[in-house]
Design a protein that fits this description.
Blueprint (H helix, E strand, L loop, with lengths): L8 H27 L3 H6 L6 H12 L7 E2 L9 H11 L11 H14 L9 H10 L8 H15 L2 H11 L1 E3 L2 E2 L1 H9 L8 H10 L13 H16 L2
Parallel strand pairs: 1-3
Antiparallel strand pairs: 2-3
Helix pairs in contact: 4-10, 4-11, 6-7, 6-8, 10-11
């Protein structure tokens, strides 16, 4: 009579899979611990270079043909109030109310994408975009959205909304090599961020989804459509 096996191959496979999953979770937690921000310093300290800016500097060092980095961080008090309103209207209408993730916007985007049968709309909040810009690499990987979520929820607990918006407006890419609203205001309009008028603020807000292709310098048809849309929504909120 053959000996009875105490463990079948499928059971051994499941045990191996669970061990690998546990190891992956532990490694991921270790990685998060290594990159975990100094929230206290970030809440009130100098405006930092974002991970995206640091990545651009590395790309430029490897390819000098890229446009030079232009980044001029300024406190939120030196950014025109209309710029703050325009970016919220354009990117995250419920920014001041949600806890970092806008579940209502997520449901709306999922429904719209289902009807369009493609990923036509995203639902990333300004907080999520800020966390992504500040802490994560532009390289896409399956864990990036998870890391973005964890960092966003932590950031919302540690920082005031106004500080998050300040960080976003100083980190957002607004053209090739162009980061932050101060550098963009001077490049496109020859004024400081503090002196932006309504139409200029709307134009910068319209640049955010695709800054390399659709911006005040290229003035594409798609860019103009977005300008018109943001202008209408901004007028409704005045």
């Amino acid at each position: 009579m053959p000996a009875t096996r105490t463990s079948t191959p499928p059971r051994r496979r499941w045990r191996l899979l669970w061990r690998l999953l546990l190891l992956a979770i532990l490694l991921d937690l270790l990685w998060l611990a290594l990159i975990w921000p100094d929230w206290e310093g970030l809440a009130a300290g100098p405006l930092p270079k974002s991970a995206y800016i640091l990545n651009y500097e590395q790309q430029q060092a490897e390819d000098p043909a890229l446009p030079p980095l232009d980044w001029r961080p300024v406190p939120i008090d030196r950014i025109a109030p209309v710029m703050l309103k325009a970016v919220v209207v354009a990117e995250d209408a419920r920014f001041w109310q949600h806890p970092g993730v806008d579940l209502a916007a997520l449901r709306e985007a999922m429904r719209a994408n289902w009807e369009a049968k493609r990923m036509a709309y995203g639902a990333s909040t300004l907080s999520q975009q800020t966390a992504r810009n500040l802490f994560l690499s532009p390289a896409r990987n399956p864990l990036r959205k998870w890391h973005e979520l964890v960092l966003t929820l932590a950031m919302e607990q540690q920082l005031e909304k106004r500080r998050i918006l300040e960080l976003y407006l100083n980190a957002a890419e607004l053209g090739p090599g162009l980061f932050g609203v101060e550098a963009a205001a001077r490049r496109y309009f020859g004024v400081s961020a503090a002196r932006l008028n309504r139409s200029q603020a709307v134009a910068l807000a319209a640049t955010l989804p695709s800054p390399a292709r659709h911006n005040p310098a290229t003035a594409t048809a798609q860019f103009q459509r977005r300008v018109n849309k943001i202008s209408r929504h901004l007028a409704l909120r005045q």
